[in-house]
Amino acid sequence: MSFLDRINENNVWHPEHFRHWVVDGCRVGRIRHDLVPQLKKLGDSFVIEDDAVHLHPRFTTFSARTAAMDDVLRRLEEDGIVKGRRNEYYPVTRKFSEPPFLQMERAGVPAFGVRAFGVHMNGYVRRKDGIHMWIGRRAKDKPTYPGMLDNTVAGGQPIGISLRDNLIKECQEEANIPEAMARQAVAVGSITYTLEASDGLKPDVQFCYDLELPEGFTPKNTDGEIEEFFLWPIEKVAEVVETTQEFKFNCNLVIIDFLVRHGLLPPDHPDYVEICQGLKR
Q: How much is the average pLDDT of 176-184?
C-alpha cells in the first residue's frame, strides 16, 4: 500500500455507467443508467434521452426545481433507493462560485452525481519532538462510514452559509473548539476527486484548513458524531494513511495534502509528482 493507493481509491469511476443530468440546459450531474427505470415511474418530472436525463423544462425557477426534486427524492426514499435523509440541503451547481440551479437534500446528491462541497480541518500541535495531529473516530452508529478515522473537523457545505461560518459551526459541534480559536484556522487550498460509490457518484471538492492548537487543548465532541479523539505523532498518522484503509476515504487526501505542504512528504519521494497531481483530479 502507498499514499498513491489512497489517492487512486478516491478516483475510481466508469463514465459508461452514467448519463448526464441536465438542468436548464446545463449538465449538473451524472445519473447511473440503472436508476433511470425508477425515474421513469415518477411521472413527467424528467425528459429522458439515451445519453441524458433532463429535469423537465417547465421547472423554470429555483423554487420550482427544488420542490420538484424534493418530491422525487421522497419517492425514491419510499422505494429504499435514497437513504439517510438529514434535512440538510446542498446547492446544485457546476462550481462553488456559481448561483445554484436548485437545492437538494444531501442524501440524494450522489444518486444524481451532483458535486458536493465540504470543509475539512487538520488540528495539530507543535511539540519539541515534532508535529502531532488530532484524529477523530466516527461514531459507530453514524449512518455513513461508522467507526472509521476522521480529520479533526469535517463537514459538508450546506447552502446558505459561508465556508468560514460553516467551519466555525463544525468546530463547535464536532470538537468543542471555541469560535475565537476556530477563526484562527488557515485556509490552505482544496482537493478534488471523483468516486463511484454504492449510492452514486461523488465528484466532490473539499476546502482544506489547518489550525494549530495549543498544547493544553483537548477536542471534545458535542453532537454525537465522533466517538473519541487521539493525539498522534504525525509519523503515526502518515503510517496509518499509507498502509491501511482505516480513515474515511477522503480524509486520507486531506492528510496527504498536509504532509506535502509541511514538507513531511518530501520532493524526493518516488511518487511525489503523482501525489501532488492526484490531489487535484
A: 98
